[in-house]
Amino acid sequence: MSEKEEICEIVSSHFPCETIKNIRLPSKLGCDNIIYLIEFCSDTIIVFRRSLKIDSSKISSEFKLNSDDNGMPYFPMHRPGHQAWVLELLKNEQICPKLLALNSEKNYLIESYKSGQDLNEFSLEICKELGEFLHVLHSIKMNKFGYMSEQPGVGVYSSWLKMFEADFHNLTEDQYPLKEIYLSMVPYLTEFNNPVLVHADISSENIRVLNGHLNGVIDYGDCLCGDGLYDIGQFFLFAKAEWKYVDAIAQGYKLSNGAKSWTKSEKQCIRFYACYFALWLKSDNDIMEKLLMPITD
């Protein structure tokens, strides 16, 4: 039986009243999950996810399990069961896909499809709406820090600082400005003690836009336990270090407390997390120069 035939059989068992019209890969090809879009004759579309790296029933005390090749390592968060756990936490949020089926033994989950286009053109309104969703996401408390462990909701590190030590300690001499930013953040990273659920992959292909509004935030396979501003920092880099878009996020993120802008200390955190992603993604010099500019009050 081919993989597509197996998927047809699985999907039909969960949706016996539907007839499958088409099975296709989406525009986003994950490196930790294989993702198929299943279109029914009723025009309903669902998403079938399966982990690529490892038998999801395998148990390990390690926080990451290496694959057999030289590709990306496997993290417990990549498992369908872990991702289903996040979808259940967010089941009342219209922006989040709905969990439709889960079989951890057979290594798959099925979720609803969020229609729309990837976010390729920024608008202040969409940024505000993203801020409203991230406010909800970041209100979910976690335990410990960093990559999700075998136990959903529990990180693998005893401190948030551990997430960043190795990358910033190995900087070269010409990367000293980044090292300075890191060293200025060490006290904050050490003392941070309010870990929340972090998406950790806020990028164009995971933000769905429909009719000029935010219609979905998808793919929870990289969630972390940590600082919510980590997500804002990643978006800041994605927005080419343009503060106006991050400031628009604050309009939605801070609705409940009356403050509608980031404090200087929050901006320093956002800038640091953006630098972390820039280091990892090897961002171009123009963006790095913008990230290194002083933050004003």
TrEMBL record:
InterPro entries found in the cross-reference section: AGP_Transferase (IPR051678), Aminoglycoside_PTrfase (IPR002575), Kinase-like_dom_sf (IPR011009)
Coiled-coil residues: none
Top-level taxon of the source organism: Eukaryota
SUPFAM superfamilies recorded: Protein kinase-like (PK-like) (SSF56112)
Domain Aminoglycoside phosphotransferase: 86-254
PANTHER family per the UniProt record, alphabetical: AMINOGLYCOSIDE PHOSPHOTRANSFERASE DOMAIN-CONTAINING PROTEIN (PTHR21310:SF15), AMINOGLYCOSIDE PHOSPHOTRANSFERASE-RELATED-RELATED (PTHR21310)
Protein name: Aminoglycoside phosphotransferase domain-containing protein
Organism: Rotaria magnacalcarata
